[in-house]
Amino acid sequence: YEICFIPDNDYRGFLKRREPEATAELAHGRLVSTSGEVLGEHDGYPFFTVGQRKGLGIATGEPLYVTDIDPATNTVTLGAKEELERTRMYVRRPNFQRFDRLEGELEAVVKIRYKDRGTPATIVMDGERVLVDFHAAVSGIAPGQSAVFYDGDDVIGGGFIDRERPDA
Residue 156: what are its φ and ψ, rounded to 5°? Predict the structure, then answer.
């Protein structure tokens, strides 16, 4: 949650002060389980991030995590920690440093967050997107965030994690 331009580190307060009309329109979104059961309401999907556990606004007796966010319906899906794990993802708008377009498969280490050590994966173009096939499950893949492909310390390229998930 640390954002350098928010001095009090109050992301929710910042959005409410900065965009009061937009945040008011997003109030009364649904919190649902991964099975589709409605668990409660929330004040808007921008106040959540995939992998978040605290500040969900409900108590169920078991730890729940944000497993998905659907901006189109203002729905936040909650589930067990294990449900955050994925072995594949798409990366849209790829940009490569070594070549114009990836041809064939390439082994890389893929990082999906700033302090991530990275996870070995096979990457290959799938239309205009990159299909990332991780060699081990990765937790907390968040659509819209950056994914960066490495060969050792060298950046191969990167792009944005796509909302659409490949078939497992």
Answer: -85, -40
